[in-house]
Model the fold of this input.
Amino acid sequence: MKVMVTGSSNGIGKAIALLFLERGHEVVGIDMLGAGIDRANYTHYVADVAVDELPEVDGVQILVNNAGVQDSGRDIDVNLKGTIRVTEKYGVREGIKSVLFIASSSAHTGAEFPEYTASKGGVVAYMKNVALRVAKYGATANSLSPGGVTTHLNDRVMNDENMWNKIMSLTLLPKWASAEEIAEWAYFVTAVNKSMTAQDVLIDNGEAAKAEFVW
Done:
């Protein structure tokens, strides 16, 4: 299938793009940075999804909206408005099979930077709107809401022993997911799943579920 992944040069987006390539799919990447992937069947476009003209790409069957920024002053413009621009151009059309949004556990808990949290909450709500509109094509639309992921974006806390120990104390499973694990979720939800739609999957090692019973 023909797969488009935004934010494909690093982190979760790169892991998703590589997994689809390894499993025989054609992948088109869009990122503000240059191509971080040099593989056959991979085409890369440099663009800011919030403001730049988006490339003309026909026949996208799976769309993965991953591009995002954090605490940048542009979180709502990139994470929400940019995601809407991309989805309306490539995802809401005949021939689409699945649209996936990479949201955040902060959409559930609110425990993040204010505009980042708002942008990701908006992504989850928009996902449900897209699911309503792509159903007529027999397509699914869902979102993944990762908690902490071991990417360079989180080096600041991963490399600080005190902060890291505090974070680990707040999860049922004292670890974070890898980008490769999120990619496996993305593959399943888009390429394998045929029946789940309009759903958000929380992948946070039990951080939102952490609770202590007092008697």
